[in-house]
Design a protein that fits this description.
By secondary structure, the protein is α/β, with parallel strands linked by helices. The protein has helices spanning about 10-25, 30-50, 65-75, 95, 100-105, 125-130, 135-155, 170-180, 190-200, 200-215, 230-245; strands at about 55-60, 85, 115-120, 160-165, 220-225. GO terms for molecular function: polyphosphate kinase activity.
């Protein structure tokens, strides 16, 4: 049956459904919900530090699908010493001569850490393949070996979560054009983004094969529809929290004690200091 099929309704029923949808939309409070989830991420962080858990979260997806904003909402209220973001640049000549997975293994978490890959080893199955940075034979070999590599990660005790953010053609174009027009977003538009826009169907083909061949019981892909960025963030962060069996850790409030008194022999240093001018006056 067509997923968009809806049985016919009378005018009264249609009006009632419209009111229900409007009421549901009105009750949606993104700021409140994202704030609640960030509190839970703080509780998750405390549990990770105490338990010594090791978490890897992989974010892949279409260009302009919202990976950066997603990662920002996850990490903006937690410690960068616990939640570490890895966004590797293009490999150096030395790294190109290494085993492909080598540069990623070096960034795996130690006890009490979360590593978030803003793009990952799956570059080999996506941009590298489409842009000809690797041969089709190497890409196919990667797709065969990736599930085994991830099985080794999971068997070592690491929690591995993989998310693929999708965006429609129309929405991706709207976001690219907004980047062109907005000086605060122009830095986000790279030559690779332009290529991905022009070669939409080449990327579609390789991403479909990647998701099909590297989805496994031990490391499944979770697809995040992202035309609505706010809903995508709430849905994805909720799923992360549900996927990790953490417990709330009781916060042991420290005793601040009393501040020391000013020493009787203390002399204020009156040497010249360079003070930042007040730009608000």
């Amino acid at each position: 049956m067509d997923e968009n099929y809806e049985p016919s309704r009378t005018d009264g029923e249609a009006g009632r459904v419209g009111k229900d949808k409007k009421k549901k939309k009105k009750s949606w409070d993104y700021d409140k919900e994202i704030g609640r989830l960030q509190v839970e991420l703080a509780h998750l962080q405390a549990w990770i530090k105490k338990s010594g858990a090791r978490i890897v979260i992989v974010f892949e997806g279409r260009d302009a699908a919202g990976k950066g904003g997603m990662i920002k909402r996850i990490t903006e209220r937690v410690s960068p010493r616990v939640f570490r973001i890895v966004a590797l640049p293009a490999p150096t000549d030395r790294e190109k001569s290494q085993i492909y997975m080598q540069r990623y293994i070096a960034h795996m978490p130690a006890a009490g850490e979360v590593v978030i890959f803003d793009r990952s080893w799956y570059n080999r199955a996506g941009v590298d393949r489409v842009m000809g940075f690797c041969s089709d034979k190497k890409a196919q070999r990667f797709l065969e070996l990736a599930p085994r590599f991830e099985a080794a990660i999971v068997e070592s005790g690491v929690v591995l979560l993989k998310y693929f953010l999708t965006v429609s053609e129309d929405e991706q174009e709207r976001r690219f054009r907004r980047r062109i027009d907005d000086p605060l977003r122009q830095w986000k538009l790279s030559p690779m983004d332009v290529e991905s826009y022009q070669r939409w169907w080449d990327y579609t083909r390789v991403y479909d094969e990647m998701l099909r061949m590297t989805d496994s019981n031990h490391a499944p892909w979770w697809v995040v529809p992202s035309d609505d960025k706010k809903r995508a963030r709430v849905n994805c962060i909720s799923h992360i929290l549900q996927s990790i069996p953490y417990e709330r850790v009781k916060f042991e409030a420290p005793d601040l004690g009393k501040r020391q008194k000013r020493p009787a022999d203390f002399v204020e240093d009156l040497s010249v200091r360079h003070v930042v001018p007040d730009a608000t006056s």
